[in-house]
Amino acid sequence: MLAVRKQPKGYGAFPDEYVEGAYAPGQHVLLLEDVITNASELIAAKARLEALGLQVTPYAVVSRGLAPINALISFSLPRGDAKTEN
Asked: How far apart are CA 43 and CA 65, in angstroms?
């Protein structure tokens, strides 16, 4: 399990790091985001993990209306039957 932060903390086991936790380049990572508005943080977290050599599959729950759906489709998130009700 990894934690991907918006900003690094200056203390703790992983000071000044965006990603906290043990990993090895080449590992597959399932990136979970529980609630998104426009997918910008999900995209940033995916980029941070890929910069470390990880293979990332992002997955999110859209619960802030339908506005972010176009962003997610262009981002190529895994597709299934879309749930459009809140």
From this structure: 19
